[in-house]
Amino acid sequence: MRALKFWGGSAAFLAIALSMASEGAGDDFTRFRGGDATGVAADHPELPTQWDTETNVAWVADVPGQGWGSPVIVGERVFVSAVVAEEANTPPQGGLYLGEGVRDPAAGIHHWMVTCFDLGSGKELWKREAHAGRPLVPRHPKSSYAAETPVTDGERLFVLFGDLGLYCYNLEGELLWSRNIEPKQTNMDYGAAASPVVHGDQVFVVYDNKEASWIAAFDTQTGEQRWRTERDETMSWATPLVWQNELRTEIVVPGKNANRSYSLNGKELWSFDGDMSILVIPSPFAAHGMCYLSSGYVGDSHRPTFAIRPGASGEIDTSDGFTSNPYIEWYQPRASPYNTTQIVDGDYLYTVYDQGFMTCHNALTGEEVYGKQRFSPKGSFTSSPWAYGGKVFCLSEQGLTYVIQAGPDFKVLNTNPLDELCIATPSVSDGRLLIRTLTKVYCISEASE
C-alpha cells in the first residue's frame, strides 16, 4: 500500500488494481523488519500488548542451534534459519564488545538448517539441511553463523548464510538452487550479517569485508548472477533497502566510506561521505518520502542520522556542511544507535540505544522531541524496535519487552518478560507477534486467550 502513492493521480485505475492485489497478498512478513522494511505493522485487534512465557502465548516451538534472523512469514508458514553444532563452542552473550571477535572458527561439524513451522499451531512442517561441515571463518562473540534474516517473494524462500552461500527453496522445502559465497576476512573477525532483499526477479546480497567487498544480484528463478558491483567498504553490515520513491526504484546501502545508491542493474546513482561511525550496522528504511540512514558506534563522537530526499545523482556535495545540499532534508550529528535500526511511527523517529536509552525526534525536521530516557529496569539492546496500535515495542537482550506509548512523551506502559537471551528482531503478521529467543520461537496473540 505504501508504494502506491508514488504512482500519482493520473494512474488511479492502476493504483486501485495494485491496492487490491496488495490487500490480497495478506500481512506477510517477507524480510528483515517486514515487507516495507519500516518495522511498523498494521493495527490488528489480536495483536498483544502484554505477555510472558504463558500469557497470550498461542504456541512455542523449539529451534535447535543458534540463529539471529527474524522469522519470515508467508501465508500460514513460518521460516527460520539456524546452525547446529555437534560440539560445544563459545555461547553467544549479550552486552557490548569493543574488541575482537571469536578469533578461531567454531569447532566441530556444523549443520546449516532451515525449518518451516505452521503459523497457526507451531507444528514443524519440514526441515532441510543446506550444508554440513566445519566453519571456515570466525564470528562475533554474540552472533551466529545464521545471523541473516531470510527473504521471500511469496513463491520462493531465499536463505543467506553470509560467509557460506545463498540457498533458494520453494515453500514446500524443495531446494531449487544454491550459490556458494567465497568466505572473506571481515573486520575484527565478526563475520557477515547483512540480510538479503528481493525486488522483482532479483535477489540482492551485500558482502562487505576486508578483502573484496561487493553487492550482487541473482536471478530469483535460476540463481544466475545478474551483476556484481565492487564496493570500497570494509566495515558495514547493514541490510540494503530497495527504495521505491516517487522518482525511481533504487538500492540504498550505507557504508563507512560512503553512503551509496545503486540502480536495479548495479550502477551507482549517488553517494556521499557521511562521516559515518567506524562500524555501520543500522539498516536504511523509508518514511515520509525520505530515506533514513544512520550509524552510531558507541566509541565515536560523530553518530549521524540523515534524512535523504529522492532524485540525487553523482556525488552529493557536502563541502559546505551536511545541511547545505537539497537532497539532505535534515541531519543530526549524535542521534544514531549502534546495532538497532531506528523506527518512524507517525511523525516521530525513535532511536533505541544499545545501553538502554531511547530518544525521539521529529521525523520530518530532525528536531529533538525528547532526549535520552533510560529504560527501567535497565537492559541492553540489539533487536530493532517495532510498532503497532500507537505503541513502540523494544526488546532487550535479557528478553524483556518495554511497551512505550507513541508520541511526544516518553512513557513505559508495561514490560513483558521472556527470560532468555534475545537478539533477533521480532516479526508481526495477521494478529500474531513472533519473538525468537536463543532456543525458541514464541507466537503471541490475544486470540490465544
UniProtKB/TrEMBL annotation:
Pfam families, A to Z: PQQ_2
InterPro entries found in the cross-reference section: PQQ_rpt_dom, Quinoprotein_ADH-like_sf, WD40/YVTN_repeat-like_dom_sf
Signal peptide: 1-21
Keywords: Signal
Domain of life the protein comes from: Bacteria
Coiled coil: none
Domain spans labelled Pyrrolo-quinoline quinone repeat: 49-207
PANTHER family: CELL SURFACE PROTEIN, OUTER MEMBRANE PROTEIN ASSEMBLY FACTOR BAMB
Name of the featured protein: Pyrrolo-quinoline quinone repeat domain-containing protein
